[in-house]
Amino acid sequence: MRQPLHDWTLTPQQAIDLQRHLAPRAERSDRLGEVHIIAGVDIGFEDDGTTTRAAVVLLSWPELVPIEEVVHREPTRMAYIPGLLSFREIPAALRAFERLSQSPDLVMVDGQGIAHPRRLGVASHLGLWLDLPTVGVAKKRLCGGHGEVPEPRGEWTPLTDRRRKEDPADVALDAEGRVTIGAMLRSREGVKPIVVSPGHRISQTTALEWVIACLGRTKLPEPTRLADRLASRRGQRFKHERMQGELGIGE
DNA sequence: GCGACAG
DNA sequence: ATCTTGTCGC
């Protein structure tokens, strides 16, 4: 784990200032060693959003089979504000990570990495706290724009944004003078593309490669898909229904 | 000033 | 995110 970078109870403006301060700390280069364990992280809510539910799933590579799961619940701290998602979700996620018996070599987070107005999405922020390589896998775009994404599975199109003051002085600009912040990936045919962006200690190219390598036949890559189910309680529900069926109760 | 807006 | 059944399609 790692030493606290800051407090979690902040006003929106303080949070924004903090993001501007932390963004340059997120490494864009690859520092990945051998990958044996990949983690998937997601947060869900219960009781009208009063309770926050953090789920972390560890999968073995290359089997992509779940080897450990942790679910942590705690009172929700603050409301959802676009751009400040990490302050709402990370505290609970950190608690879940503390309960893991081993540390992953790569983490996939449900949300944006640097594809964020201040280049510090929840994946980047979490990566800094854990000091682990992270990738953002979001179902929807927060900022930036892109062209059409080819239909075949595995195809992608760059997600670009106007240059922001949080971008390093030496950022590469495309022909239109825009910055590449991620990729719109067709993870499955006939389904809306997902947003893949590097979080911390990983490059755009490597981040995309790992997400593609973790794709099954569903829209989301295995790590995020399993964490999603745990966080939204679908895994338990199915298990419960199956038990009822085996016991001959229910309908 | 007018939209857009992760989960 | 969450509330929710059946239904259309590969």
From TrEMBL:
Its EC number is 3.1.21.7. GO terms for cellular component: cytoplasm. Keywords: Cytoplasm, DNA damage, DNA repair, Endonuclease, Hydrolase, Magnesium, Metal-binding, Nuclease. It is found in: Cytoplasm. The record marks Y80 as: Interaction with target DNA. It catalyses: Endonucleolytic cleavage at apurinic or apyrimidinic sites to products with a 5'-phosphate. One of its GO terms (biological process) is DNA repair. Pfam families: Endonuclease_5. Mg(2+) binds at D42, D110. GO terms for molecular function: deoxyribonuclease V activity; magnesium ion binding; RNA endonuclease activity producing 5'-phosphomonoesters, hydrolytic mechanism; single-stranded RNA binding. The keyword Nuclease applies. Its cofactor is Mg(2+). InterPro entries: Endonuclease-V. DNA repair enzyme involved in the repair of deaminated bases. Selectively cleaves double-stranded DNA at the second phosphodiester bond 3' to a deoxyinosine leaving behind the intact lesion on the nicked DNA. Belongs to the endonuclease V family. PANTHER family: ENDONUCLEASE V (PTHR28511). This is Endonuclease V. It comes from Modicisalibacter muralis. The gene is nfi.
